[in-house]
């Protein structure tokens, strides 16, 4: 085991994927992009925003309403369409001719909002302005009805109230599932090239035959390779947990969700719950590598297997699979479900954790036994 660890520490490719790509670059790229996307979609109605308006003097009441909702009105450029298209201003509100006459006549008053859907800033600010304009429209409609002696509530047949019982909605669920996804993917990447090199790589270099000729049990050789792989997989998981903790310290809680918890205690608890995957992933990598005859073939097989740790992440985004006793013994799926509950501060039954640990370790033991059996055959040299 020590020999394999020292040899692979000299391999730049192994060190890059085990200690840099999975633990550092992947959380930064994936986690950062998701958080910034959620920030882009969120609207802060308390933030002061400037709005260029054409013919603002023709709609003083509308301008006063926008100003009361933290919108500063400024003069529009001479060519508003070109200014929005070129990105000089994010959007322009045009008060069309006849606006005041339409308001007095209780007719639809024409306004035009010039936006650039290809510009994220323009699209985001336009959502806020459209929301405010819809609120102003409802106010005008209610005043028109009251002016005619009609109670506006007569048109409200239903009073619909929606209460989201989840802690942070869909965005919170997505961020909660990010931690298990990053942990599992980085663990796989951490032991990926080491597992290939210790089996298929040694077969190609013709160093496996003299190794198997030593007066050692095949079981000891497999356990040594397995232990070395576990060291890299575990180290990659620890570094990823640290990266996720540091990453989420740079973002305010209103972006990542007030109910989400990425403090040190939560990250530590999450890693401990996911730690049985260190043995399971190592056993998968060692077993698949033992089946292959070359490094290229091993990379092909293990590349396909990379879809397995990704599958629960994408499946749980579209299909709601409840955490039940029968899902807990399933490796990776149970860890996804448990880690989501931990991040969301949901109650995590001890029975669920026990079943997850036992199921994952049992599957790891079966795979390790299969790897030992494969190494016991003479075909391992072919």
Keywords summarizing the entry:
mainly alpha, abc type-2 transporter like fold, 4-stranded mixed sheet, 16 helices, 66% helix
Describe this structure in words.
The protein has 382 residues and is mainly α. Helix content is 66%, strand content 5%. The protein contains 16 helices and 4 strands. Strands 2-1-3-4 form a 4-stranded mixed beta sheet. Helix 3 links the parallel strand 1 and strand 2. The relative contact order is 0.12. About 1% of the residues have low confidence.
Number of individual domains: 2
Task: Tally the helices.
Answer: 16
Gyration radius, rounded: 30 Å
Order of helices and strands: HHEHEHEHEHHHHHHHHHHH
> Distance between termini?
23 Å
Helix-strand layout with pairing:
Blueprint: H1 2-9, H2 12-41, E1 49-54, H3 60-68, E2 71-75, H4 80-86, E3 92-95, H5 99-104, E4 111-114, H6 120-147, H7 169-205, H8 208-212, H9 218-248, H10 253-256, H11 264-274, H12 276-291, H13 295-305, H14 307-318, H15 333-343, H16 350-375
Parallel strand pairs: 1-2, 1-3
Antiparallel strand pairs: 3-4
Helix pairs in contact: 2-7, 2-9, 7-9, 7-12, 7-13, 7-14, 7-15, 9-11, 9-12, 9-16, 11-15, 12-13, 12-16
């Amino acid at each position: 085991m020590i020999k394999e660890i020292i040899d692979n520490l000299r391999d730049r490719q192994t060190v890059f994927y085990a200690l840099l790509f999975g633990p550092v670059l992947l959380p930064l790229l994936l986690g950062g992009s998701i958080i910034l996307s959620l920030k882009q979609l969120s609207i802060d109605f308390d933030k002061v925003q400037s709005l260029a308006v054409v013919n603002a003097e023709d709609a003083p009441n509308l301008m006063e309403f926008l100003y009361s909702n933290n919108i500063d009105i400024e003069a529009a450029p001479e060519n508003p369409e070109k200014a929005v298209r070129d990105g000089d201003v994010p959007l322009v509100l045009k008060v069309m001719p006849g606006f005041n006459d339409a308001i007095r006549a209780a007719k639809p008053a024409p306004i035009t909002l010039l936006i650039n859907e290809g510009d994220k800033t323009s699209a985001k600010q336009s959502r806020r302005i459209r929301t405010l304009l819809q609120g102003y429209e409802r106010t005008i409609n209610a005043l028109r009805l009251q002016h005619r002696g009609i109670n506006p509530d007569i048109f409200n047949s239903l009073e619909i109230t929606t209460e989201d019982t989840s802690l942070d909605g869909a965005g919170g669920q997505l961020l909660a599932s990010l931690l298990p996804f990053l942990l599992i993917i980085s663990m796989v990447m951490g032991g990926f090239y080491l597992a290939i090199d210790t089996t298929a790589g040694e077969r190609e270099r013709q160093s496996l035959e003299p190794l198997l000729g030593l007066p050692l049990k095949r079981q000891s050789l497999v356990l040594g390779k397995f232990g070395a792989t576990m060291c890299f997989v575990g180290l990659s998981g620890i570094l990823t947990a640290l990266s996720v903790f540091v990453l989420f310290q740079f973002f305010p809680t209103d972006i990542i969700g007030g109910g989400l918890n990425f403090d040190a205690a939560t990250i530590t608890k999450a890693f401990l719950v996911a730690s049985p995957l260190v043995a399971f992933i190592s056993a998968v990598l060692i077993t698949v590598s033992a089946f292959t005859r070359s490094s290229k073939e091993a990379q092909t097989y293990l590349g396909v297997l990379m879809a397995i740790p990704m599958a629960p992440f994408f499946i749980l985004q579209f299909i709601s699979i409840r955490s039940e006793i029968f899902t807990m013994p399933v490796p990776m799926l149970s860890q996804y479900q448990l880690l989501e509950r931990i991040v969301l501060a949901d109650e995590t039954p001890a029975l669920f954790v026990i079943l997850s640990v036992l199921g994952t370790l049992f599957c790891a033991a079966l795979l390790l036994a299969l790897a030992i059996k494969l190494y016991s055959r003479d075909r391992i040299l072919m």
